[in-house]
Structure prediction request, 563 residues.
Amino acid sequence: MKNSKAQGILIPMTLIFIVGVVIAAVALTERSVEHLPFAIAALLFNAALLLLLVADLERAILLSGMLAVAIAGISSVKFDHSALKLTVSDLPLAFAGTVPFFVLQYPRMMLGVLAGGALFALASGAALLYAAGSPVPLMFRVLLFVLALIGFAAASASAAVRSLRGTLTQGRCFYSTFMASLVDPACWRQFGALALSDIASEPLPLREAMPARSACSPDIIVIQHESVFDPRIFGLPVEPTVEAFLSPPGAEFGHLNVDIFGGGSWQSEFSLLTGLSSASFGSSAYYLFQKGAGRFHSSLPRSLASIGYNTMLISSCRRGFLSYDKFYGSIGVDERIFVDELPPPFDARRFEATNSDAVFLDAVIDAHIKGIADDPAPRFLYALTNFNHGPHTRQLVPSGQFEQERAFAMASLPNAGYAEYYARLAETASAWQAARAKLAASFPDRPVLIVHYGDHQPVLTKQIDRQRKHQGDGRSPFRTFYAIEALNIPHFSPGPGADLDIAFLGTVALQRAGLALDPIFATRASLLDDCREAYFASPSERKRRFHRTLVDLGLIDLMPSAR
Prediction:
C-alpha cells in the first residue's frame, strides 16, 4: 500500500521534472522570451505526436526534448558555418553536395556532428528501452494530439512566428525557426520548380535603353577573390600593400553585400552575372548552377556579347566541378577554360596543392593576352580564384614568404587562422600588383576596366568576431569588398563608392565602362536608388514588379518546360 502511494507521488514528480528540464533546455537555445511560447507549443506538439507511438508520457516528452535539442544543435552548427539557421528547405541540400563539401573542408566539425548523431541515436534507444512509464489509453492519446495540434496551429499564426523569417541571421531561436519553417508554405515551394520569393503580381514597365557614354569599348576583367574580406570590417589594421589592393588609389571601392557566408561561391557568381539575388530562390539557391542552366536568358555576358564582346571564363576548378561548364555556356560565356586546361608551363596538379594566386593570376593574364592576339575585339574575362578558401588551419603560404605580414596579423589579432588568412591575402595583393603591371605593359593604350570582389567571408570570421567582440548588425557576416580599377579610361571617376549589393555589381561595371545599357540593365540601374546595398532584403515593390517582368518576358524560366 505504501509502495503504491509512493509510486503515485513519484510518477507525477518525474513527469514534472522531465517537462521542466526539457523546457529549460529549449529556453537556453531560444534566448528569446517573445518566441518561447511557440517553441513550447512545438515541443508539446511533437510530444503528443510521439505519444501516439510510444504510448507513455515520460518517453514522449523526453524524446521530444531530445529532438528539440538535436535540431537546435544542428542549426547552431549550420549557423556557425553559413551564418544562416536551419530550415526545412535546407533538407534537399544534403543531396546537392553539401555533406561531401563539409566533410572535405571541415573534417573536425563533421566528426563532431557524427559523434553527436551517434550519441543522439544511443540516447534515444536507451530512452525507448528503459524510460517507459505508465501507458496512456489510445483515446486519451488522440485527444491530447488534437489539443496539441490546435495549440500549435494557433501559436503558428502569431506575429512572433511571422517575425522569425527576419531572424535567420541571428544566433538565437534555433528550434523555433526550424519548426516555423515546417508550416511556412514558402519553404515547401522550394522542393519543386524554381520559385521567386520576392515577385509581384503586376509587371514593371521597362526603361528605354541607355546609349553609350563613350566611343571606346574597354575590356572588362572581373576577378572573384575566394573568401576575401576586408579586415577593417572588424577594426583590424592592414598594411599599405593590402590597403592598395582592397581600396586602390585611383579606383572606386566600397563594401559589398553578398547572399552567402562560409561557402557556395557559385551563388555570388550567379548574382553578379544575372543581376538577381540567389537568396530569392530559397534552398534552390545552392544548386542554381545545376537546376538553373538554360533558364536565365538575361545576363552580363549575353548583354556584352550583343555589342560585340568576346566572353571568357577562367576557373581555378576543373571542368567537371558542379555544372559550371553547362551553366556558364547557358548564360552566354562562349569560351570556358578550366584549371586542368590551362596550357604549359602551367601545371594544374602542382597548382592544386596550394591554389596560389601568384601562379593563377599570371596564367589568367597570359590567356587574356593570347585571346587579344587572336581577336582584337573587346573582351569580357571572368576569373575565379581559390587561394583563400578555408580552412585556415592549413599553411598554404610557404615558410619564409610573407612572414612579416604573418607577424603583423598575429600582432593585430592573436589567432593563427587569421595570420594564415592575412598572409594569403598579402600574396594575392602582391600577385595582383605584378599581374596589373604585366597587363598595363602589354597594352599601354588599350582601355581596361577591372572589377575585384570577395565572394563571401570564410568561417574564420566567426572566431574573429568573437575575439573582437564585434557588435555588428545581422548583415555583417555577409559583407566583403569590391574595387573597380581603370586603365586608359578618361571618363572614369575614382574615389570611395557607395556600399553595393552584389546583384548590382555587374550593372555598375557597365556604367563605369561607359557602355550602352539595354532595357533590362537600364531598368535594373534605376533600382539602385530603391535597393542600393540590400537587393534581396529590400522591400522595394518596383524590384518585385521587375522580377514579374522578367518572368513574363520569358527571361527567367521558373518551370523547366517553359521553353
Observations:
- The chain is about 50% helix and 10% strand.
